[in-house]
Design brief:
4-stranded antiparallel β-sheet; about 0% helix
Length: about 100
């Protein structure tokens, strides 16, 4: 391989990778900060797949969504956050503490 003529391909970064979820573990609220504008689907589920919170929104870059009402009363445990954007789906594990 000739390093002088090698082609470097850009790495495709998913917009979902640019969604910051904090804090994890969470206690009374969960924040999602979007680094890319667009339409997002958000589903928070327990480990059995039961939907606890579901929302579709059009987010601007830098916008933060704070989820309080649905998470404060949840029992301690592991939850799944499903993010959907432009046909891509990502599932993240979140921990709820008391």
């Amino acid at each position: 391989m000739d390093l002088n003529t090698a082609t470097i391909k850009p790495v495709k970064t998913s917009a979902l990778a640019l969604v910051e979820t904090s804090p994890n573990p969470f206690l009374k609220e969960l924040s999602l900060t979007f680094s890319a504008s667009g339409t997002y689907g958000i589903v928070l589920m327990d480990l059995s797949g039961r939907s606890i919170f579901k929302k579709s929104l059009i987010a601007d870059s830098g916008q933060t969504l704070v989820i309080r009402d649905k998470v404060e009363s949840l029992p301690q445990g592991i939850y799944l956050l499903e993010l959907n954007h432009k046909g891509e789906k990502e599932v993240r594990r979140l921990v709820k503490v008391k």
